Amino acid sequence: MNSRTVPKLVETWFGNNADNPTRTEVKRVLAGVHSMLNNVDYVYPGDQCSANSYAYVFPQSPWNKKGGKYLFYLCDYYMKVGDGEKIETLIHEGAHHQVMVAQDSKWKGKTMYGRTLCTSVAQKCAAGDKAACLLALRNADTFCYFVNDAALASQGKTNPLDPAVAPQAPSSGGGVGGSFR
């Protein structure tokens, strides 16, 4: 982010590449997730997993930590996907924790899961929709896709799941009390 080598990806996922609030907020959330991932206890299997859930967390105290470590509950589905989706899941769930406070935002009644809906909301932001800009900056899936695509871009690659290449159906999640991906 500091080297400004991924401005197109910032625009793709967040709708613009403005210093404030976009880049400032993206850097804040990513720094928090990076710091937090060094202090996680992974619980497998989580007792609230469903067949199509990757993982879940409880973002708020007292359920978010045990022994000073953040808790991530991993599900069977997480164990079946590739490394890219695993990394996306950890970023997504990490972004929910209390310090970062990203959500599973809603756009027109739909939870913002999946690349297609996240980029659609970013496009609305780029067209001047301030509500879309705010939702993109608060949505956990938006952050996980941005990180994965930025990592690939640093290797000169693009993501084959990019909506411009091959649109996919939104992933499913949901749950009571916690954040599920």
Strand content: 5-15%
Largest sheet: 5 strands, mixed
> Unreliable segments (pLDDT under 50, ≥5 consecutive)?
165-177
The average pLDDT score comes to 88
Structural class: alpha+beta
H-E order: HHEEEEHHEEHHHE
Helix content range: 40-55%
Alpha-carbon Rg, integer: 15 Å
Please tell me what the overall shape is. globular
Number of DSSP E strands: 7
CA-CA gap between termini: 25 Å
Specify the number of helices: 7
Structure characteristics:
181 residues, two-stranded antiparallel sheet, 7 strands, globular, five-stranded mixed sheet, 44% helix, alpha+beta, 7 helices
Characterise the protein shown here.
This protein is of the alpha+beta class and 181 residues long. The protein is built from seven helices and seven strands. Strands 1, 2, 3, 4 and 7 form a five-stranded mixed beta sheet that branches. The protein has a two-stranded antiparallel ribbon with strand order 5-6. Helix 5 packs antiparallel against helix 6.
List the helices and strands and how they pair.
Layout: H1 7-14, H2 19-36, E1 40-43, E2 55-57, E3 65-66, E4 69-74, H3 76-80, H4 83-96, E5 106-107, E6 110-111, H5 115-126, H6 130-138, H7 140-153, E7 179-180
Parallel strand pairs: 1-4
Antiparallel strand pairs: 2-4, 2-7, 3-4, 5-6
Briefly say what this structure is.
With 181 residues, this protein is an alpha+beta fold. Helices cover 44% and strands 12% of the residues.
